[in-house]
Amino acid sequence: MHWERLFSAEVNVEFFSYRLPEMEERRQNFFYDVAVRGDPLLNVVSPALVVGYDGYEEKFGAGFGLAVGFDREGMVKHIAVIGEYYPVLSREEGRTGAENCFAAGVELQTYGHHFAILVGNSSQIGTRRLMLGTASNDVYLGFNIYRLIGL
Fold it and tell me: How far apart, in whole angstroms, are the C-alpha atoms of residue 143 and residue 13?
């Protein structure tokens, strides 16, 4: 019998702590999430889902993603067009933005680095901040660089 993997999943726990100049006390708490990514359908399309809980904001959130790409030979081993969407599940004035977050762009993977160039309506990064929404649909240009380290 031959079993094929349909998806991969990961569980993350993050501790965050920060203090802005105008704040008297530090803000800190945990963020928990479960991310599920489908293995490429037809070796091209990879759907993704992330569900998280922000202990500080006491809010659940979710994000959806899609990557359409292909493997290739050479220095750049994978190229994909990517998209992400983070709907605000429960709005609360002063704690969540008026608009849902979205981003789209291109991702290039080499044998150690991943590069992404994105346009979206939020200047924030990370599931914790994106699931809280954004103030407007103004468009921002951004990039991410990841370095993979084998142990």
Answer: 24
β pairing state of 45-54 and 27-38: antiparallel
pTM, entire model: 0.85
Of residues 33, 51, 45, the one with CA closest to residue 7: 45
- Inter-residue contact 115 to 144 (CB < 8 Å): yes
List Cβ neighbours of 32 (8 Å cut-off, separation of 6 or more). 11, 12, 13, 14, 52, 53, 55
Alpha carbons 72 and 31: distance in angstroms, whole number:
36
User: Is the model's pLDDT at 1 over the cut of 80?
Assistant: no
Q: Strands of 43-135 (E only): list them.
A: 45-54, 59-71, 78-86, 101-109, 113-120
Q: What is the dihedral of CA 126, 129, 131, 134, to 10 degrees?
A: -120
* 88: nearest Cα among 134, 49, 50: 134
Single-letter amino acid, residue 122: S
Name beta bridge partners: 131.
none
| Position 14 pLDDT exceeds 80 | yes
Report residue 142: phi and psi, to 5°: -150, 175
